[in-house]
Amino acid sequence: MNPALKIQRFSTRFFFPSLDILAILAWGFLLVKYSFTGELRLLIHPNYFGLVTFTGVVLIILGLIRAWQWGRQLGRRQQSETRDTVAHITLFPRGWASTLLLVSAVLGFFIAPTVFKSQVALQRGISNTLPATQLQAESFQANTKPEERSLVDWVRTLNAYPEPDAYAGQKAKITGFVVHPPDLPDNYILLTRFILTCCAVDVYPVAIPVRLEGDRRQYPQDTWLEVQGIMETETLKANPQTSQKSDSQKRQLVLNAQSVRTIPTPADPYSY
Amino acid sequence: MNQIHQAFTIFLSLLVEALPFLTIGVFLSSAILIFSDEQKLIAILPRNPILGALMGSILGFLFPVCECGNVPVARRFLMKGLPTSVAIGFLLAAPTINPIVIWSTWVAFRDQPEIVVFRVIFSLAIAITISCVFSLQKDSRPLLQPVLVKQLNRVMAERSKNNPASSQSEISPLLQSGTFWLDKPGQLTTVEDMRLMTEAVLPSPSVPKRSQLFLENVIQELRELGGMLIIGSAIAASIQTFVPREIILGLGQSSISSIVAMMILAAVVSVCSTVDSFFALSFASAFTSSSLLAFLVFGPMIDIKSIGLMLSILKPRFVLYLLILAAQLTFLLTLSHSYFF
């Protein structure tokens, strides 16, 4: 037999089908693995955990059925190639798409998703307003105790009623990671958290400025802090990161830190 | 290195969020492809251009396929004698107006339901307008690729050779004039002809064979669309991570440049419509919502991939008309959206 024909027969009988099966199985196992290790929390909103796990299981089953079918086909001496009666228009050369799928799934097994940090926050522009894609607060919750509000609760409250003076003098205890805003004085940090609405694509940083006793360099960027203090109002540069006109000033809420504690990175660093 | 890791995380998150929707879409479209009976459907469809366009657009609810699956379906519709207006309406609107796409758009833009609503309305409006324009062409043959027309003719010729008993008068008008099967749609013989004709093109398989085909089709679509999704996600993740924010903001904040930029992106990226809303979401913070709408409306109708697929049915000139009409309508509608909302 002609060697080129032999290679072609080998690829259509062994190589391409096994590539398909491996790619589908790899993605199935990757999705299931993410839901068991909890890494899914770094990737998507908890609403869709079930959907992703289910899809993983479906893909594994699909891959297994396909593998079984393929094995049976190989078992038959006179294997009849299943002819496609359905019109297919393929864009990739044969094997490319499965290779892409397989390679990305394998990479996913070896490279764990990362937790976004200050660099992403600065790049995306930190603000103390909620993103457009985030559910707005349904009601103004005045009855929660101020010191029990999380950082995101504070931002939500501020969004519902944005007058900073209304909160002056209230106690607060919030956690988040440190971002050094380049255009605020050295004793200010932005205590930041990411809000995730759908998936890591739309993580959106929100922050509350914190005034420290000393220099901010004692708390390097990306350190997670729990800060307790009193809310005050100050006139600072508006939206330190996003504002195009860097001169504009805005009266805003600032946390005057009384005690600052370094904490480990929480297991679920994002708020939803 | 850190940035590459971030880009990879975004890439993974796009894939993990999109894969479930892609899988559901692929399963449904394969099921429809293999198990549904289009014959009955075609018999009840209206022939009036506007009604037909509307029906064709709404057919997406019955055939939840994205733009990659709808071209073969539209092709079979045309081969089965469906009016051009219905087929074009289906071609343009079905990728957007179907439950899975609406669901995934809603998942991505949970707090901007107006994006979901306008996506549906604009897509419907554009599909109906364009298919009304195309319905002025009563005979669909000049629009079709010569291969397809030849196939039609060949199938009919074979049929007449096999059945010499069938009267010449029944066959010849079909061969001579293409208006026959569009102008007299209700005629029994015509429908019968169409049925036999398509059966010759697509032999209807037995039930175990069908499930085998179903599986085959699921895997093939999963592979093709998954590959496309991976490329699209990689592009989105790198744009988000590596392109400086000032450039994106500069483009994304003015209403005209943002719409144009997103339309070009939609045409280039070719992400499947069931998952393109997640892709759009990655631009939500920097781009105007009108431009996101432009992406969501234009992308499923026209992109590099679907142009390739459409060229398998329509002649290049008509694909170009489609492209220009769709682009202009999308631009006008989303631009007016940016002024009024």
Structure description:
The complex is a heterodimer of chains A (272) and B (341). By secondary structure, chain A is of the alpha/beta class. Helices cover 35% and strands 21% of the residues of chain A. Chain A contains 5 helices and 6 strands, in the order αααααββββββ. In chain A, strand 2 (188-195) and strand 3 (204-211) form a beta hairpin. Chain A is elongated and about 85 Å long. The model of chain A is unreliable at 79-87 and 240-246 (pLDDT under 50). Chain B has 341 residues and is an all-alpha fold. The chains are: A alpha/beta (272), B mainly alpha (341). The interface between A and B is large, with 62 and 63 residues.
In short:
Chain A is α/β, with parallel strands linked by helices. Chain A is built from 5 helices and 6 strands.
Task: Provide the descriptors you would attach to this structure in a database record.
heterodimer; A: 272 residues; alpha/beta; 5-stranded mixed beta barrel; 5 helices; 35% helix; elongated; B: 341 residues; mainly alpha; 18 helices; globular
Count of distinct strands of chain B: 0
Distance between the termini of chain A: 62 Å
**What's the overall geometry of chain B?**
globular
Unreliable runs of chain A = 79-87, 240-246
Largest sheet composition of chain A: 5 strands, mixed, barrel
Number of helices of chain A: 5
Strand fraction band of chain B? under 5%
Report the structural category of chain A. alpha/beta
As residue ranges, the low-confidence spans of chain B are: 164-174, 176-201
Number of strands of chain A: 6
Radius of gyration of chain A: 27 Å
Estimate the global geometry of chain A from the Cα principal axes. elongated
Distance between the termini of chain B: 41 Å
Q: What is the gyration radius of chain B calculated from CA atoms?
A: 21 Å
Pair with the most extensive interface?
A-B, 62 and 63 residues
Order of helices and strands of chain A: HHHHHEEEEEE
Helix-strand sequence of chain B: HHHHHHHHHHHHHHHHHH
